[in-house]
Design a protein that fits this description.
Blueprint (H helix, E strand, L loop, with lengths): L2 E5 L9 H10 L4 E6 L5 H11 L2 E6 L12 H17 L4 E4 L10 H21 L3 E4 L16 H11 L4 E6 H7 L3 H7 L4 E6 L15 H11 L4 E4 L7 H10 L2
Parallel strand pairs: 1-2, 1-8, 2-3, 3-4, 4-5, 5-6, 6-7, 7-8
Helix pairs in contact: 1-2, 3-4, 7-8
Length: 252
């Protein structure tokens, strides 16, 4: 049975983050995740996490979308150091990292070399801290126009070259269905590199039932693969948060 994590960025968006954590626990879930860690009220989040006993399944390095940016190598290494400190304070083992957009007039390979250089340094920080960065491909068609890293093959190639226990892939089943499909095939092909998984319905990025992705079959495939990390629920509920989370639990 996949271990599910609720992305509190997309649930109860009118509430403070510490209250969202309590709502996750009240819904019967054991883990949550979020995006960037700055301006979140971390002290209140730590208190709510301790109070509920929830696991922090992951959060994003801040700044995000900055690996493709020229000239910020030291800044991104420091971002990994800062995020690692926050992760230890939350007892979290997974950090999410996004690449950013294409650089106008620059070839894919030039950008790739820059991204690899940064990830080698950031991966060393993560490995030394006992953490794992998870590099996320996104779809450039609906949500992230001009985003640079779009396929699992590209992400797998970068992870292979960096060759660090501190770097893996975030496999987003919503984004990759839009970009390339082959969800179960890519799961099997990259299972040794996958450190985190995201889910949402296609199209719309809403509940898991009723769209193109057969999440009952995908959850069975995840179980069969031996993956033991978290599967994040990163969707916008349309039926109310409690009903959407109850519906998702039935898929298990």
């Amino acid at each position: 049975m996949p271990k599910l994590s609720v992305c509190i960025e997309m649930f109860w968006t009118n509430l403070p983050f510490d209250e969202r954590i309590r709502r996750v626990a009240a819904a019967g879930y054991s883990a949550y995740e979020f995006w960037g860690w700055r301006a979140k009220g971390l002290d209140a989040m730590r208190a709510a996490t301790a109070e509920t006993g929830l696991v922090v399944a992951g959060f994003a390095i801040d700044p995000g979308f900055a690996l493709t940016t020229p000239g910020n190598e030291e800044g991104m290494t420091q971002a990994a150091i800062d995020a690692a400190a926050v992760a230890h304070s939350l007892n979290c083992k997974t950090l999410i990292v996004t690449t950013g957009n294409e650089i106008a007039g620059e070839s894919y390979e030039i950008t790739r070399r820059r991204v690899v250089r940064k990830l080698k340094a950031m991966g060393r920080v993560a490995a030394d801290a006992g953490l794992r960065l998870c590099l996320e491909p996104l779809n450039p068609f609906v949500d992230h126009k001009y985003y640079w890293l779009t396929t699992m093959a590209q992400a797998g190639d970068i992870v292979e070259e960096v060759d660090s226990p501190g770097l893996g892939i975030l496999y987003d089943l919503y984004h990759q269905q839009i970009t390339e499909g082959k969800l179960i095939d890519n799961l099997h092909r990259h299972i040794q590199q996958i450190g985190h998984i995201h889910t949402a319905g296609v199209p719309g990025r809403h509940e898991l039932l009723g769209g193109e992705n057969d999440y009952a079959a995908l959850f069975r495939a995840i179980d069969a693969s031996g993956y033991n990390g978290y599967v994040g629920l990163e969707f916008r509920p349309t039926m109310g948060e409690a009903a959407a989370l109850a519906q998702t639990r039935k898929l298990l």
